[in-house]
């Protein structure tokens, strides 16, 4: 089975959820018109990655940081209350599998905590998996809470079995293995990282897991930051490339076959052969014949972790 995939690294409208949702729908329609059956968005496309956290002075820009966090929280996606309905509707209409990253707000319990989340939406418009980043990186811990293991799943879709890890989660060997052990076809790594070292890691994962690897960050310049962004010029010079994107497709058992798409606010298209994943694992199957479960033991807790359990009187 051959599937045309599209990886987008076009920027969203930072800190503007409504406009970023409209941009996502525009992208979905454009890649569907081009014949793609799967579209992959970068890490936290909705409504953009909080890159300012790497530029604020520790302790010196607290007021600005608080202002930006409030804007981010007010523009985060509330999945529990239908925040992705418009995306799901277009996925259904265009028969498109969608993998999209977002800042998600926990409206169920705290009402304010944010998570770095990626969801997989199938062609029926249903969300078939939600994964919250289990370990935010460095200053990201001032933005997002810790996810749990409930999203460490490889799910069936119309374009094959898909699993996702976000950015530096891909450097966590046991997180990777948890996906390899679920008969994965397409391993998707939305990220904010880029460059030769990151691409080398994607190549390693494709070889290690015997799967297709798709990855991208947002291609972003300072001039892409909206005028409404507080103290924009102080943090982001207009012509600076904040992130080059570097969308890439790596074939099973290694080898870059498309990309990297460097400093282009565009799409990367490629036709993948799903059967190539299983074929490649004849020599190396780390969750199968190349494993030693009699020596190594790994247990994954995929129960949803709740901050509270309510015990009420029976009705």
What are its keywords?
315 residues; alpha/beta; Nitrilase/N-carbamoyl-D-aminoacid amidohydrolase; 6-stranded mixed β-sheet; 24% strand
Fold and architecture overview:
The chain is of the alpha/beta class. A hairpin with a 2-residue loop joins strand 6 and strand 7. Helices cover 23% and strands 24% of the residues. The chain has helices at residues 17-33, 62-74, 85-94, 173-180, 196-209, 232-235, 275-280, and strands spanning 2-8, 38-40, 97-105, 114-121, 127-132, 155-157, 160-164, 186-190, 212-216, 220-221, 241-243, 245-250, 256-262, 267-273. The strands form three sheets. It has a six-stranded mixed β-sheet. It has one domain (2-280): 4-Layer Sandwich (Nitrilase/N-carbamoyl-D-aminoacid amidohydrolase). The protein is globular. The chain has seven helices and 14 strands.
Rg over CA atoms, rounded to whole Å, is 19 Å
Structural class call reads alpha/beta
CATH architecture, by name, is: 4-Layer Sandwich
Tell how many strands the DSSP assignment holds: 14
**Shape designation:** globular
H/E series, N to C? Answer: EHEHHEEEEEHEHEEHEEEEH
User: What is CATH's topology name?
Assistant: Nitrilase/N-carbamoyl-D-aminoacid amidohydrolase
Alpha-carbon distance between the termini? 53 Å
User: What is the count of structural domains?
Assistant: 1
Q: Sheet bearing the most strands, described?
A: 6 strands, mixed
CATH superfamily: Carbon-nitrogen hydrolase
Q: How much helix is in the residues?
A: 10-25%
Low-confidence segments: none
CATH hierarchy class name = Alpha Beta
As a percent range, the share of strand residues is 15-25%
Strand arrangement within the widest β-sheet reads 5-4-3-2-1-14
**SS element count, helices:** 7
Mean pLDDT: 96
């Amino acid at each position: 089975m051959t599937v045309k995939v599209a990886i987008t690294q076009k920027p969203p409208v930072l800190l503007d959820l409504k406009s970023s949702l409209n941009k996502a729908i525009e992208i979905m329609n454009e890649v569907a018109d081009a014949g793609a059956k799967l579209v992959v968005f970068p890490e936290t496309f909705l409504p953009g990655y909080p890159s300012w956290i790497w530029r604020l002075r520790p302790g010196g820009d607290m007021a600005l940081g608080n202002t930006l966090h409030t804007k981010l929280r007010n523009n985060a996606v509330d999945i529990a209350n239908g925040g992705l309905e418009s995306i799901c509707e277009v996925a259904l209409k265009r028969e498109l599998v969608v993998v999209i990253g977002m800042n998600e707000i926990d409206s169920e319990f705290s009402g304010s905590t944010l998570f770095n989340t990626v969801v997989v939406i199938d062609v029926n418009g249903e969300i078939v998996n939600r994964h919250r980043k289990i370990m935010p990186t460095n200053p990201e811990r001032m933005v997002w809470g810790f996810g749990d293991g409930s999203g460490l799943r490889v799910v069936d879709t119309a374009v094959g079995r898909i699993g996702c890890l976000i950015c530096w989660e891909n450097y966590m060997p046991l997180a990777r293995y948890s996906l390899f052990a679920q008969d994965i076809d397409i391993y998707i790594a939305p990220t904010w990282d880029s460059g030769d070292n990151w691409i080398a890691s994607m190549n390693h994962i494709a070889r290690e897991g015997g799967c297709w690897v798709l990855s991208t960050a947002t291609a972003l310049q300072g001039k892409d930051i909206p005028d409404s962004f507080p103290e924009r010029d102080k943090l982001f010079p207009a012509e600076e490339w904040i992130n080059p994107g570097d969308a890439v497709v790596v074939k099973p058992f290694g080898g870059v076959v498309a990309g990297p798409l460097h400093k282009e606010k565009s799409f990367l298209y490629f036709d993948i052969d799903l059967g190539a994943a299983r074929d490649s694992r004849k020599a190396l199957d780390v969750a199968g014949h190349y494993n030693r479960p009699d020596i190594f033991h790994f247990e994954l807790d995929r129960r949803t972790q709740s901050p509270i359990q309510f015990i009420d009187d029976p009705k």
